[in-house]
Amino acid sequence: MNKVKFLVAAILSVLFVACSEEENLSQTSKTGFQISLTESVKVDSRSTPAELGKPLISQFNLKITNQVTERESYNGSYKDFISAAAGMYTIEAECGDDLELALDNPYYKGSVEDVTLENGESKSVKVICTVANALASVVFDNNGIDSFDEQFSSYGIKVKVGASSTTIGNNGKSAYYRAGSKPTFTFVGTLKNGTPIEEVPLEDAKLSESETFGAGQHCVITLKLREANSGAHVEISKVEVDKATINETIPMEWLPKPKVEAEGFDENNTLTFVETEQKQAALNLNLSSALQDMKFKFNFQDEQFAALDKEKTYQLSIAEDKAAIETALGITLPDVGDKPESIDLSNLLAKILTNAGVTTTNTIEIDVKANNRWSSEAKEGEEASNLKYTLTCNKPEFSVSVKPENCWAWEFTVDEISVIEGDAEKIKSNLVYQYYDGTNWVDCSDGMTQKFAVDESRKNIYLEDEPKERTYQVRALYRGVIASAESTATLEEPWQLPNGDMEEWYWSQIHEDSWLNVFDSDTYTVYPWAENNSSFWNTNNDFTTRNRGTFSNIYNSFPAVSFIDESHSDNWAVELRNTGNGRGNTQPSNVLEMNKVAGELFIGDINISTGGTDAMPSGDKYTITEGRTFSARPTALKFWYKYIPLNSDTWRVKLKLIDNEGNTIIEKEIESSETQSAWKEAIVTLDYQQSSFYAKCSKIYICFSSTITTGDNMQYEKSNYTIWLDNERTFEDVWHGSTLTIDDISLVYDK
Prior knowledge:
The chain is mainly β. Helix content is 6%, strand content 42%.
């Protein structure tokens, strides 16, 4: 068979991939066959030696025979469309010559029977072609004491079929013979010592079986030498018979060079990714035959791969090199003799790092050898391959923030990182949160939370004191070297309440005695702040002393809250009492319901509304504007108290923190009916975990009430009563009830 025909066979080796299909490709006025000789992907990329030129598909021979008349409708080279009358046909495809015996002379044939063609039908037909003759090749085993090259100056196997003979040697060529033939095999060789050609008939059970020489059967005979008394003795080591494929019959040098195709890389063979990012990439190998070798060169900026020598060319065929690459890169390489589809780089990508956040550029150069050609080879008409692959690793990008509401008096909590680029879970698995203490970056004491020891010097500061700068820079640090941008955390100042010890008081006489004192008496009001100072605490005294006219009497103008010298510590404490005194009371008539109020000490302002006349008031009441500016969130309110109820009664304290939009952050109150004649400590704890949200505090509101029962049902009695002004003063005709005494009010900051 000439070489052009052989190349046609190679190019169209898998042309005919399926059995006949009865499908109409198109409606045409002609009746006939469309025989598509479709090339496969593996064949499509094959190139041929330039000197042979490009083979034509028309050199494939087709024969179409009517099965009824046995007449040939067509016998010739391939055509796009072959006309035929309606009927049933056999279609045959053939390439090459079915010679009795020849070297490297494959013959291909395929046929499809019972193909029915209707009038006006254009039918598509595909044919499976296979190697139709048989072949034999030889392998010389040189692993013994003496090799064939050492013993013989020339050697081979003479193959004889009928009157034809040829010799195959250790050059990769094969003997092709007509299927069903019974070839004989004889070893021939000339010893180096000058002994004439030795001929050794080769015999084996498989060489006597007809199946060994069937169509497409490839008989591989392996010979070896064994020691004999005189020289070396040739014998068969083994005989193997495999099914020959069209690909195997093509000479290696005629196959294309192996190709490496980068998957996951850009058009410049560059893959850019972020450290921790989950990336998939591979070097796909397009091989027409088994892998013979690979060469690698590495230039990695990533310091962890410093063991790879930048000046060295590593080879797959060298076991030490293969092991070094697999160990360093964490990838699996194929073995020589394999036909791998790809080299997976995913594990390598997962390992590559930046150098402490500095981008690393890492290159791999690869050259692949298969079918006696290197992928770097570029013959005339072929494009040179880019065999350099670049892996560019950038640092992950992530940020931290600290919500103001997560900054307390003695601790702050950093929000979980926000990942901009990179695998969030991988980053979080090797992450610490830090703050700058003015000298060093220090790991937060409890994961994302930094808890500071309580500064005793800051435990008793008041709103008018000078605040201390309590701002820290914070960051997140990945694997100890890659830091996020910095954020700021500012701790709350653990403010205490002004006049929490109840030592500052101011009283004012609001009506002096007159010559008409038979009808009136001295009246006073008392305020929980020093004279000329601003108020923080307030009382409902402006309501109980609202009747300040000329004819006012003590029974209708008396403070519900005042200070006493029976303090828990220092000088003064505050006393709150149920009060019935107020505008409109007339002695000895009953106290008006609207005047029956609790003594109340609170943070905020009092708003009073009045109605009617002094003699007949109606609708008098007061409301409280809750809270004053305050910017900390305590964990508890603590105070000391005594309580003397009239009959049965209950006192109450309420605490509320409010944000800058008027929303309640947290609210808590406690009540007690227990008589307490000696000082007792009370603590109102604030559980922020039960709060609806953690907002920053803008206002604080606290209200102490001597009773929770006001109006008609309030408990009171008429008697004289002593309060402290510039000294103890006793007033008669006072309506009063339960008494609540408070001192040493403070806030607790546990976080």
